[in-house]
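Hi R.,

Here's the chain you asked about this morning:
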Amino acid sequence: MPVSLANKRILLGVTGGIAAYKSADLVRRLREAGADVQVVMTEGGKRFITPLTMQAVSGKPVRDSLLDPEAEAAMGHIELARWADLILVAPASANFIARLAQGMADDLLSTLCLATDAPIALAPAMNRLMWANEATRSNMQTLALRGVLAWGPGAGDQACGEVGEGRMLEPLELVAKVAGYFGNGLLSGRKVLITAGPTREPIDPVRYITNRSSGRMGFAVAEACAAAGAEVTLVAGPVSLPTPAGVLRLDVETAAQMHEVVITRAGEAEIFIATAAVADYRPQDCADAKIKKADESMSVALTRNADILADAASRFANLFTVGFAAETDQLQDYARGKLEKKGLDMVAANWVSDGRAFDREDNALWVCWSGGEQELPSAPKKVLARQLVELISQRIKEKHERQQHSRPGAQDAGQNTG
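And here is the predicted structure, written out as tokens:
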């Protein structure tokens, strides 16, 4: 099946290394797959391959200066940072990796990497001893914790005459990595409904009950589903996060509002992923005016909210349902119980005690389904989201295969004795 990167915008960074000669072919291969490519070169990169060559293969003028008066008149580096769906640095030299790990912004490429919210992937290329050096290994570990992807290096003959790890991956291998990152159609054409963030349950016009959910995990899942080719509708509680590219966002505030939107939309969806931290209870009555301080104590009567996930699972039999469980104890037991009680297809559970999950960029998940489980170790939430999408895709495929085999006459289908 040919790789398709149609409508994907790739910003290709070229740094100083002999492997830069491969970058021209990489641009050509990315464009053949349908990607729109903008090349950004460092001063070192221009010593190994000319900007004119890269312009010829990309069809765009190469960007190489942070202080280009013509481009910066409209804050060109910020515009570029927002333009990219992915920043791929190939080759990524040991020097560039070190500067990126330190958060330096002394040229256009490093500045773009700091100014973007797009994913960043590095294709390291250097001498085997430089790659094995503790400083380089430490820098790569630092970047990995920030969610920066590392594609390679490969092993083999090197330009210096030595043999070992440090070769930049070949252009076709990198194109496959890019396609794999974007899901390569794992959920292509599927309609996905996702909830994210907290809800707010009003006590009076100025006070409400809520929780610590930031919505980051749900938004990362929405982004990963869209990248995998899905048509995504995101029902978001009150959060301060930008809408992922290609996602339809519907904002709500209360659990009742979220329930109404989900039930209205779920009939059109194939997959429902409930990452939102929905309030289980709401105040029975909401005061029309601000409640004034009076007695030493006061109580607020609470009433239970509808269970959005359970309702969707029971009403729409063909909906593939994924629940989230945030737990402080007995995580696996509670997650399995939720799976069975609500009749879900999958549950992703995470610890929320001792400073884990909330208000953090990283997380860890324990995912379970009927007859199986898988642990996703601590990683940036965007990385976890992509791993979860892969699991969902696998489970949907297996579920459909079981349904096909269980149909009456399935064993005899295609057999004709006439």
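One quick note: The chain has 15 helices and 19 strands.

Cheers,
M.
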